[in-house]
Design goal:
Layout lengths: L1 H12 L13 E10 L2 E15 L7 E8 L2 E8 L5 E8 L16 H21 L10
Antiparallel strand pairs: 1-2, 1-5, 2-3, 3-4
Length: 138
């Protein structure tokens, strides 16, 4: 009985997890609604997800990093923040780590070079597979 009451209460009062399918290494675009006086505006922040902490619980967060004008900017978003309108996944990245804090030491150029190298190697493996072609004998 009490478990049913708790789950009903949490379903009613906890907003959904808007970062459900987002993982570390992805490049995402976060659309956040900001209120300035009586007017509101949408703020868009695009960057690489470098950390995801505390899973899907109420205090879970996601850290997004972007290099702007030679300076690294990081924003930490709670996963249940009601002002977030939507999340767009721009690129998916393949990582072998759960936290990408080493990107703090790299420049934007080095990060782009690394991701480009991964993209090129992925294309090379796709092109190396022989295509099924029909041959005719006359």
């Amino acid at each position: 009985m009490s478990q049913h009451v708790i789950s009903a209460f949490s379903a009613k009062h906890n907003p959904e997890d808007r970062f459900g399918d987002v993982s570390v290494g992805m490049t995402i675009r976060v659309h956040q609604k900001l209120k300035q006086g009586e007017k509101g505006k949408a703020s868009i922040f695009e960057g690489i997800v470098i950390a995801r902490k505390h899973g899907t619980e109420a205090g879970g967060t996601i850290t997004v990093r972007r290099s702007i004008g030679g300076y690294g900017v990081e924003k930490v978003y709670p996963i249940r923040l009601p002002s977030i309108e939507k999340i767009e996944v721009v690129k998916t990245g393949r990582t072998r780590r759960s936290k990408m804090y080493y990107l703090r030491e790299k420049t934007a150029k080095e990060i782009r070079k690394k991701t480009r190298a991964e993209a090129v190697s992925a294309k090379a493996t796709e092109e190396s597979e022989p295509a099924a072609e029909e041959t005719t004998t006359e």
